[in-house]
Design brief:
The protein folds into 2 domains: about 160 residues, 3-Layer(aba) Sandwich (Cytidine Deaminase, domain 2), CATH 3.40.140; about 160 residues, Dihydrofolate Reductase, subunit A (3-Layer(aba) Sandwich), CATH 3.40.430. About 30% of the residues lie in helices and about 20% in strands. The protein contains 11 helices and 13 strands.
Length: about 325
């Protein structure tokens, strides 16, 4: 298998956590032994938790020595591995979608971890443009580790696109759910697994926007109850400010609800999502470039939405009985 194959596995591991790692980037990592056998595939899953490299190293060592009893806290895990790895990953190759960090943040540097393991090669998808964390490739080379850059660079750049945007102050995307034949109307179109994933994303949002007609028709709660998470503040996009306060979204604790006809609040939010019905999807600003689509495995009666431009599929996977994917508008 070539480098692109293994990097592709790292990308597939990272994309399901897109947005869930906020404010960190989504990152995937694969470790193979000197014969090319896969030892582990993992990803960064949540801010302030273990980075992709640390997760992958842990899984690889568990496979090679099931007797290990690893601590859960990232800093403790890092220290435990440095002390107990016994050179089990010597001469291994590591594939990581983003340059290993080279600074002490919530966790110690991944570059130092990989160097201490005496791996032979580190293949990197894209260099880190964040000056505070960059320099991992240079450090690894200083330790006589073979570093190969720009493996599937375009695909790895796409993966960290949201991270680069929220570093500038704003990342916004539109989310839709549809049946297998493209119908968007009605409640609970997607599976429980898809809805749980969406609730996990809501827990990370600073703002959720929705059209006034959808609020009146569907009476959504728009919380994160399926993951016991924090419900985001809501922006109702509507020319009319008349809404019954008995509607569910108005009765969620610690939530602010704004009713406005302007998109300004959406574009000033650091991490914003638009829950779009067919009408709002057709009318949303062209500056919204990212779209998350949940597609049910079932057919449904109704009309399909009309998109005003073409969207390019970046990645697609499965979520329960549904498929879900991230798209980008050029």
């Amino acid at each position: 298998m070539g480098d692109n194959f293994y990097m592709g596995l790292a990308l597939d591991a990272a994309w399901p956590y897109q947005g869930l790692t906020y404010p960190n980037p989504a990152v995937g990592c694969v470790i193979v032994d000197k014969n090319g056998a896969i030892l582990s595939i993992s990803a960064h899953q949540k801010s302030k938790q273990a980075h992709a490299e640390l997760n992958a190293v842990k899984l690889a060592l568990e496979k090679l020595n099931p007797q290990f009893r690893f601590p859960k806290e990232p800093n403790d895990l890092h220290a435990f591995i440095l002390k107990n790895h016994n050179n089990l990953l010597k001469d291994a190759t590591v594939y990581v979608t983003l340059e290993p960090c080279n600074h002490y943040g919530s966790t110690p540097p991944c570059s130092m971890l990989l160097a201490s393991l005496h791996v032979k090669r580190v293949c990197i998808g894209v260099l880190d443009s964040n000056q505070e964390a960059s320099g991992g490739a240079k450090f690894l080379r200083s330790k006589n580790i073979d570093v190969k850059l720009n493996i599937m660079q375009k695909e790895c750049e796409a993966l960290i696109g949201p991270f680069k945007e929220w570093q500038k102050g704003h990342f916004g995307f539109v989310k839709i759910a549809m049946s297998l034949n493209g119908v968007m109307s009605g409640k609970a179109i997607s599976s429980l697994a898809s809805r749980t994933h969406m609730h996990a994303l809501r827990d990370k949002l600073s703002l959720l926007a929705i059209g006034g007609n959808t609020v009146r028709t569907d009476n959504p709660k728009l919380d994160a109850r399926l993951v016991n998470g924090k419900a985001p503040d809501v922006l109702i996009l509507s020319k009319s400010k008349e809404f019954s306060k008995d509607l569910e979204l108005f009765n969620v604790l610690d939530r602010k609800v704004y009713i406005e006809s302007s998109w300004e609040r959406f574009f000033n939010a650091s991490f914003a999502m638009l829950e779009a019905g067919p009408n709002l999807l057709a009318a949303m600003p062209q500056s919204i470039k990212w779209m998350l689509v949940y597609r049910s495995s079932k057919f449904k009666l109704g009309l399909s939405p009309k998109l005003q431009s073409e969207w390019r599929l970046l990645w697609q996977g499965l979520k329960g009985e549904d498929s879900f994917g991230w798209y980008y508008r050029e």
